[in-house]
Amino acid sequence: MKKAFIFDLDGVIVDTAKFHYLAWRNLGKQFSYDFTEEENEQFKGVSRVRSLELLLEMANYSATQDEKNQWLSQKNEEYLSYINKMDESEILPDIPRVLDYLWSKNQGVALGSASKNARPILKRLNLLNKFQAIVDGNDVTAAKPDPQVFTKGATALETSYEHCIVFEDSIAGIQAANSAGMISIGIGEASVLHEADYVFSDFTEISNNFLDQLMA
Ligand code: BG6
Ligand code: MG
């Protein structure tokens, strides 16, 4: 049966989560805030604008709109400086195998990412042509945990929500998939992603057999 497999990008296909964290941490230092890796879990899957709001709330710092705009572009510039050094070797283990297997089984494959940098990143990784639909931060009006980024992918692939399977590393993304009635697969730690239907540490743990079961 044809299903739609929707992949998040950051932290699922490539480990850009560490670059987002570095850039936010360095920004936080400007207002003397020590942003921890644990706090960063709340930022995963969350839009750039909302992430800055969260950081300012944590630091108890009230910024003007001009400051906010300047910090948003500063954060993105630092993030892009890391991204621009990336190549195919940074694709996370077994992602190519899983993508190729899904294509060989004639399944729908889409990207559902909050990032406005998703397309250039996929291009750098030579993965653009592996996705039949790409929905990213430029295409949505509501961010995860709102399911819009995934429901738009389902619509593009003409697949009903219950036949969609979402791979996500963020709490907000798992909640988004669950609220759309999609199967949610967490990539990361089970203690963090406990709301997911299944959790794996990475794609090396996801066998072709398991993918067959999801297609059945
Ligand atoms: C998500 C990341 O995929 O995209 C978040 O998990 C990030 O950390 C968000 O803030 C927006 O990304 P960008 O590239 O548009 O700043
Ligand atoms: Mg992610």
Give the gist of this structure.
Helix 1 runs antiparallel to helix 4 (about 65-85).
Strand arrangement across the biggest beta sheet: 3-2-1-4-5-6
Q: What is the H/E order?
A: EHHHHHEHEHEHEEH
Provide the low-confidence segments as ranges. none
Largest beta-sheet details: 6 strands, parallel
Description:
With 216 residues, this protein is an alpha/beta fold. The protein contains 9 helices and 6 strands, in the order βαααααβαβαβαββα. It has a 6-stranded parallel beta sheet with strand order 3-2-1-4-5-6, with helices on both faces.
Question: How are the elements arranged and paired?
Answer:
Elements: E1 4-7, H1 17-30, H2 37-40, H3 48-59, H4 65-83, H5 95-104, E2 108-112, H6 118-124, E3 133-135, H7 148-156, E4 164-168, H8 171-179, E5 183-187, E6 198-200, H9 208-215
Parallel strand pairs: 1-2, 1-4, 2-3, 4-5, 5-6
Helix pairs in contact: 1-4
Bound molecules: 6-O-phosphono-beta-D-glucopyranose and magnesium ion.
Q: What distinguishing features does this structure have?
A:
43% helix; binds magnesium ion; 9 helices; 216 residues; six-stranded parallel β-sheet
